[in-house]
């Protein structure tokens, strides 16, 4: 497609480029800052002297991490959680969103079902009751405790439902005339057409599983089973009381390794940044709709 | 007649079947814990549990609503999150539209990835960055004094602090909604653009007549869902950034409840607040749902 | 549609009630078990087995516990070791036939929350390590075992000496109606004494003497702002370190308040013999007025009210500030980091300055409680817990030195219960100084079965530092140097230049209900006054609101408590 480029259009492209570059820098600079801290000497980091370039360059933090077994072990658990969790979540989101994307004429009870799910977005039982339910269903200390309670993200489901409604009706009708079942319709028509939405939700699910740390601490009975972010959260210490004991002090002295902490935060975000570009190809215009239409 | 209903049921049966797993999980793990709501009406004590704790009726609600400053805190919560909701939709939407117009694919990808990055960092980490940025000796104030104006203590000013809270939240989260909007834009049928072009519509007209209507359902959906969070103004973020000088403009429900718990783990007032928030959210979302249905005959979900 | 929704809800109700039923049966089980446990305990005491603290159980005894842990501190600890593999536990099994079973382990930071969940879901272990707040809760709910007999019969002499090291004051806090429900582990209360840390190299650069009065302190602080104490040609320093929480654990304003006779958040004995809240006294107003003027003069950082403890520490490390009030331990963190950055930096502690001719007296709490060891009422062998506590102190003794090593997988900070000698700190100071003075190669780290924890480590630091190793300064100067942190603190202790906080009970009902609002009021008012955004007379308004909003009720409750508990 070649547009005739007017002057206004050219100007727009330039300004747009500038705006987007500025926004991009806003996102990247904090990471550069963290990277610089993780590569600096601890006293420079503690004195907040490091801005965007390391002060007193050293790889000490990374060398130390490379031999730390906890880091690698929890990384493995996170990988397992993301793989398993994303598979379960996506399956549930897709098979739940599909029936609910039908109109009331096609599926009489859809609205009742939708509200049944939607209410849970606003009402919850709170921490203790949820813990009790997870315990009573025997999930404590298993990876399923991190997956099943949130297995159906209603938010994502509602979003996908809306995307499913955009599936061109003529495609659906054509498939039905060919004798396709709901199952076939879902996999052969709905999913391929909704790839950008699916990619988006996969991304959110992966990120969600990767980032959540509190459930790991809550439901796992020993730190050997912590996913990465739960493990990382144990490195941030805060003293929230007036009297500080000799043992608290030892903790302060040990955890004050700001460079080490920063290195781990940085590494913790790295894998997910690598997943992202991979999913991005689904956002590029033109691929999806064009390729499905035969 | 009966036959017809039966046929309809058989036709819809596969749809019911598909919903079974989702319904089960939701029943057990979302509805299951809701028995905890009773806590809001009890003088809850962990040792006695939900059955044996003393019932106190609405006392927890009265206690919370009668706390000094509660109305101030409620108002702070409301206006901060309202701004967050509004800008959290508009900014990513504009960015998505701009990004969609970017010429080069590599540039698009790069920007997209970068915008998403802050989303990965916790407020604990970002708090330090924001403090540096807005401190009296920070880059922004250097710029201000460079222009000959007086430096501003942003994080200590009741005028600026809420703006920083809203701004940084929008910045952190904008990648998230932007991607949804991009997915929606990409999903618009190309034929519509081609048709518009044939009709002689320029880029601007295409935007108004094709792109925006195409993503309107998603925009409305996200706005509605965000309105459901209107009483969550962002706990971690405010707790890390605020200080006594800006309590009057930035103390929100969640930070308030957090401080209540410092003397004693007060589960019950927190549960009462939680229930109150849930009821408000559900009310607002139901209202938007109803309005959208009434005026545009569109079911948001 | 309505019917369908209803159906869903009914199912949910059924499900809920089933959970409630289990919770219920759980609870009745608790009631049933309680008498059994109380029968159990005298029975155990009566067993023919001799009352030997280190006697081996004939049958294996299992003790369940939970653990809030941190990574092992010693780098020589074998990699990948778990709390279950701790060397202490193997020895415990061999020596006493006790098996420890961890129900869960969690990093220290999340311990409190996870423990609350355990309480709520009725999953409590036999042995628990709690704080005072949790102790009160568990006691009120009748969930704690009476361990009087077990303690009297099975505690080793050393353990008794530690628990009752303050004449039984601490133990008395956890004794109700003559029955012991918890064993406290605490430190010397004087360890909370506030002192004043000053950059003495800056004093020297400017030709100033260490300040002895508030007025002199003000002059020094002003000089630190204006006269370029670090001689770098830039006006980039300020006087006094401060952070947004005025009353906190360090780098805060407690020391300054105390110097001028003000004790916010503490309860002091008034002239009428009744306790009164420190935050509403006229002395507090004086300090606020002083701080307000200091803020205007630039002695405080313009942005102190925005800075948390981390940021305040950053300024100290970066060499931007020269005075900080605090406790004895600063040299080992963060002052040592400042010295790493700037080898010329010298920090020394000084007593609180005097004001109006009266010496500054630091606030000291009656007790510096670390934790309380308690036993579940349902536990079958409370005496096993007492034995475990005695066992820990026994293992510290020099005769076990060859096996009790990090490289053998002994991780002390994973073992509970650890009850320390409250006088350890003073013993350590004396032993190390004695060894240094007499040029010994080894410090005497055990005397009359009392082990001095950390003596070897501090002695080594002392030797290294005196031989010129600057890295050892932090440990040495905080714990062993005569003019260092503890060295000065113990002199203040001997002169009794302190004021006691008379209240050490749990939060009163009105405190629980109104405390958060009152705290907010205080933080807001004090901060605004200091920043100059409210006039000093705002304080009087604060006092009357404080009284109205619950302060008067709290004062009454505190005094009721005092009437009952004062000694």
UniProtKB/TrEMBL annotation, chain A:
InterPro entries reported in the protein's UniProt record = MetI-like, MetI-like_sf
The record's similarity note reads: Belongs to the binding-protein-dependent transport system permease family.
Transmembrane stretches in the record are 12-36, 82-100, 112-132, 144-164, 185-210, 262-279
Tell me where it resides: Cell membrane
Q: Main subcellular localization, coarse class?
A: membrane
Q: Is Transmembrane one of the keywords? A: yes
What is the protein name stated in its UniProt record?
Answer: ABC transporter permease
Keywords attached to this entry: Cell membrane, Membrane, Transmembrane, Transmembrane helix, Transport
The way this protein sits in the membrane is described as: Multi-pass membrane protein
Which PANTHER family does this one have? Answer: ABC TRANSPORTER PERMEASE PROTEIN MG189-RELATED-RELATED, POLYGALACTURONAN_RHAMNOGALACTURONAN TRANSPORT SYSTEM PERMEASE PROTEIN YTCP
All copies of domain ABC transmembrane type-1, residue ranges: 71-276
TrEMBL record, chain B:
Report the principal subcellular site.
membrane
Query: Which superkingdom heads the taxonomic lineage of this protein's source?
Result: Bacteria
| Compartment(s) of residence | Cell membrane
Which CDD domains does the protein's record reference? TM_PBP2
Residues in domain ABC transmembrane type-1?
A: 74-288
Keywords for this protein: Cell membrane, Membrane, Transmembrane, Transmembrane helix, Transport
Annotated membrane-spanning segments are 12-32, 78-98, 110-131, 174-193, 214-235, 267-292
**Statement: the UniProt record of this protein carries the keyword Membrane:** yes
Q: Which Pfam families match?
A: BPD_transp_1
Q: How does it sit in the membrane?
A: Multi-pass membrane protein
Q: Tell me the InterPro entries matching this sequence.
A: MetI-like, MetI-like_sf, UgpAE/MalFG_permease
Similarity remark: Belongs to the binding-protein-dependent transport system permease family.
What is the name of this protein?
Protein lplB
Q: What species is this protein from? A: Gordoniibacillus kamchatkensis
Organism lineage reads as:
Bacteria, Bacillati, Bacillota, Bacilli, Bacillales
């Amino acid at each position: 497609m070649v547009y005739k480029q007017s002057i206004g259009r050219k100007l727009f492209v330039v300004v747009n480029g500038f705006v987007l570059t500025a926004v991009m820098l806003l996102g990247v600079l904090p990471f550069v800052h963290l990277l610089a801290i993780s590569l600096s000497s601890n006293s420079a980091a503690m004195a907040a002297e490091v801005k965007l370039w390391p002060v007193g360059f050293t790889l000490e933090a990374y060398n130390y991490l490379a031999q730390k077994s906890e880091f690698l072990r929890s990384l493995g658990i996170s990988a397992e959680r993301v793989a398993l969790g994303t598979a379960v979540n996506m399956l549930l989101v897709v098979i739940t969103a599909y029936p609910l994307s039908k109109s009331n004429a096609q599926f009489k009870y859809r609205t009742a079902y939708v509200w049944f799910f939607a209410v849970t977005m606003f009402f919850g039982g709170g921490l203790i009751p949820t813990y009790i339910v997870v315990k009573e269903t025997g999930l404590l200390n298993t990876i399923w405790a991190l997956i099943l309670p949130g297995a159906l993200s209603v938010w994502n489901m509602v979003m996908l439902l809306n995307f499913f409604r955009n599936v061109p009706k003529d495609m659906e009708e054509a498939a039905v005339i060919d004798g396709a079942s709901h199952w076939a319709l879902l996999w052969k028509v709905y999913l391929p057409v909704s790839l950008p939405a699916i990619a988006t939700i996969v991304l959110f699910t992966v990120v969600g599983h990767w980032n959540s740390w509190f459930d790991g601490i809550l439901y796992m009975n020993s730190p050997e089973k912590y996913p990465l972010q739960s493990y990382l959260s144990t490195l941030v210490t805060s003293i929230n009381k007036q009297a500080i004991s000799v043992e608290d002090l030892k903790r302060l002295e040990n955890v004050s390794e700001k460079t080490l902490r920063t290195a781990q935060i940085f590494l913790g975000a790295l894998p997910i940044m690598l997943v992202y570009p991979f999913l991005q190809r689904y956002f590029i215009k033109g691929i999806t709709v064009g390729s499905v239409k035969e | 007649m009966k036959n017809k209903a039966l046929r309809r049921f058989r036709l819809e049966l596969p749809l019911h079947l598909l919903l079974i797993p989702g319904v089960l999980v939701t029943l057990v793990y979302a509805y299951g814990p809701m028995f905890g709501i009773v806590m809001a009406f009890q003088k809850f004590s962990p040792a006695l549990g939900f059955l044996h704790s003393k019932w106190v009726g609405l006392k927890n609600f009265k206690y919370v609503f009668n706390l000094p400053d509660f109305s101030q805190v409620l108002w702070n919560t409301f206006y901060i999150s309202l701004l967050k909701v509004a800008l959290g939709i508009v900014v990513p939407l504009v960015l998505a539209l701009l990004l969609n117009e970017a010429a080069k694919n590599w540039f698009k990808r790069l920007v997209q990835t970068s915008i998403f990055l802050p989303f990965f960092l916790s407020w604990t980490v970002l708090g330090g960055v924001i403090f540096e940025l807005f401190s009296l000796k920070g880059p922004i104030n250097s710029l201000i004094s460079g222009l000959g104006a007086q430096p501003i203590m942003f994080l200590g000013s009741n005028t600026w602090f809420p703006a920083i809270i809203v701004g940084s939240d929008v910045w952190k989260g904008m990648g998230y909604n932007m991607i949804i909007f991009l997915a929606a834009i990409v999903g618009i049928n190309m034929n519509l653009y081609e048709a518009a072009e044939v009709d002689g519509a320029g880029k601007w007209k295409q935007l108004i007549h094709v792109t925006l209507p195409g993503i309107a359902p998603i925009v409305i959906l996200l706005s509605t869902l965000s309105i459901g969070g209107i009483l969550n103004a962002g706990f971690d973020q405010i707790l890390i950034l605020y200080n006594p000088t800006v309590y009057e403009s930035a103390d929100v429900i969640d930070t308030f409840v957090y401080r209540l718990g410092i003397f004693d783990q007060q589960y019950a007032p927190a549960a009462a607040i939680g229930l109150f928030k849930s009821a408000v959210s559900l009310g607002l979302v139901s209202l938007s749902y109803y309005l959208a249905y009434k005026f545009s005959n569109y079911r948001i979900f | 549609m309505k019917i369908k929704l209803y159906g869903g809800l009914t199912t949910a109700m059924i499900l809920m009630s089933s959970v409630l039923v289990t919770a219920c049966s759980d609870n009745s089980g608790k009631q049933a078990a309680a008498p059994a446990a109380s029968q159990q305990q005298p029975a155990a005491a009566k067993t023919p087995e001799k009352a030997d603290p280190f006697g081996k159980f004939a049958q294996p005894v299992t003790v369940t516990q939970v653990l809030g842990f941190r990574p092992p501190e010693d780098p020589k600890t074998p990699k990948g070791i778990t709390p279950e593999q701790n060397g202490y536990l193997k020895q415990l099994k061999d020596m006493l036939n006790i098996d420890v079973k961890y129900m869960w382990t969690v990093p220290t930071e999340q311990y409190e929350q996870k423990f609350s969940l355990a309480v709520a879901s009725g999953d409590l272990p036999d042995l628990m390590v709690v704080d005072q707040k949790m102790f009160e809760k568990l006691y009120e709910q009748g969930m704690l075992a009476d361990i009087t007999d077990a303690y009297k019969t099975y505690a080793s002499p050393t353990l008794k000496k530690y628990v009752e090291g303050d004449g039984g004051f601490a133990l008395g806090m956890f004794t109700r109606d003559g029955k012991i429900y918890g064993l406290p582990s605490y430190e010397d209360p004087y360890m909370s004494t506030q002192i004043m840390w000053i950059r003495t190299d800056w004093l020297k650069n400017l030709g100033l003497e260490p300040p002895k009065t508030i007025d002199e302190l003000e002059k020094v602080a002003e000089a630190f702002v204006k006269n370029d104490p670090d001689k770098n040609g830039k006006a980039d320093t300020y006087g006094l370190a401060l952070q947004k929480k005025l009353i906190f654990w360090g780098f805060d304003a407690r020391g300054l308040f105390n110097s001028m006779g003000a004790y916010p958040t503490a309860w002091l004995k008034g002239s009428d013999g009744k306790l009164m809240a420190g935050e509403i006294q006229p002395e507090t107003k004086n300090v606020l007025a002083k701080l307000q003027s200091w803020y205007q003069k630039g002695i405080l950082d313009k942005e102190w009210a925005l800075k948390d403890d981390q940021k305040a520490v950053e300024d100290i490390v970066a060499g931007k500030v020269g005075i900080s009030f605090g406790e004895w331990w600063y040299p080992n963190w963060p002052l040592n980091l400042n010295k790493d950055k700037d080898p010329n930096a010298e920090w020394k502690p000084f007593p609180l300055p005097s004001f109006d001719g009266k010496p500054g007296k630091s606030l000291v709490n009656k007790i510096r409680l670390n934790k309380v060891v308690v036993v579940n009422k349902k536990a079958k062998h409370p005496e096993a817990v007492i034995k475990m506590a005695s066992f820990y102190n026994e293992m510290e003794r020099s005769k076990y030195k060859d096996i009790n090593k990090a490289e053998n997988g002994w991780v002390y900070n994973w073992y509970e219960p650890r009850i320390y000698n409250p006088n350890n700190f003073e013993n350590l100071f004396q032993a190390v100084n004695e060894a240094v003075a007499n040029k010994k190669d080894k410090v005497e780290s055990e005397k009359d079965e009392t082990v001095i924890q950390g003596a070897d480590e501090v002695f080594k630091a002392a030797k290294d530092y005196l031989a010129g190793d600057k890295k050892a300064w932090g440990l040495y100067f905080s714990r062993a140097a005569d003019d260092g942190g503890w060295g000065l603190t113990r002199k203040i202790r001997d002169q009794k230049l302190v004021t006691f906080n008379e209240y050490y009970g749990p939060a009163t009902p009105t405190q629980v209900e109104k405390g958060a609002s009152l705290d907010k009021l205080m933080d807001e008012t004090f901060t605004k006054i200091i920043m100059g955004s409210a006039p000093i007379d705002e304080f009087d308004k604060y006092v009357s609101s404080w009284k109205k909003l619950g302060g008067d009720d709290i004062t009454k409750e505190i005094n009721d408590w005092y009437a009952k508990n004062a000694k």
